[in-house]
Write a structure and sequence with these properties.
mainly alpha
Length: about 210
């Protein structure tokens, strides 16, 4: 029995999606600031929804503390920009650092189950929030602006933000697509459905 993961239809759809992404990339060159701003917001919402679906839908992990990583990315951008890194590279660097921080956190959080995981993530988010409030250079919890963005003209700033949001959306949606089709993705979905059954099939399941 042969399993075909790529058919003519799927290849055409994937190619068509790539063409659509290229067309969307031209939005700042064609439309006015209002359309660019709203499209940027839409891309961010799509990315957040897709990542939440990956966590809660495919992974079966209901978290009420994901704002911790959004905050780490935002304040990380301000931190690196304050060190002299250009704002947009600082955003990418802050994203990578947030991902690295999530690894040790996962060793603790993924040992929790169901409501314990949700509340545990909430506690972790509150701990990170307290640490931010202790840092005067990050606004001490009152908020802070990324003033380094003022070095760009408004139209360029809006276009760069749009393209960065589009790039992140394409990259992470593609990564999610290939993850779900990989052995790892299938293992994660098996764990979500039934940990004991997944373990009996040879899937490694973290113990409590």
């Amino acid at each position: 029995m042969t399993v075909r993961r790529w058919t003519r239809t799927s290849k055409l759809f994937t190619g068509g999606t790539g063409v659509v992404a290229l067309l969307v990339a031209s939005v700042p060159l064609v439309f006015g600031p209002d359309i660019v701003q709203k499209t940027t917001t839409l891309l961010i919402l799509i990315l957040l929804a897709a990542m939440w679906n990956a966590l809660a839908g495919y992974g079966g992990l209901l978290s009420v503390g994901q704002q911790a990583f959004i905050g780490l990315g935002a304040y990380g951008t301000v931190f690196f920009a304050g060190l002299g890194v250009s704002p947009y590279p600082a955003m990418v660097l802050a994203m990578l650092v947030s991902g690295l921080i999530s690894v040790p956190i996962s060793f603790l959080a993924l040992r929790l189950r169901a409501a314990q995981f949700a509340i545990g993530m909430w506690v972790i988010a509150e701990v990170i929030s307290i640490l931010v409030r202790l840092d005067q250079n990050l606004g001490a919890g009152t908020g802070i602006s990324l003033i380094q963005l003022n070095q760009y003209a408004p139209n360029f700033r809006q276009a760069y933000t749009f393209w960065l949001a589009l790039a992140f959306t394409v990259i992470f949606l593609s990564a999610l697509f290939f993850l779900l089709r990989s052995p790892l993705g299938l293992s994660l979905q098996a764990i979500r459905d039934d940990e004991d059954a997944a373990r009996s099939l040879g899937v490694w399941v973290a113990s409590r």
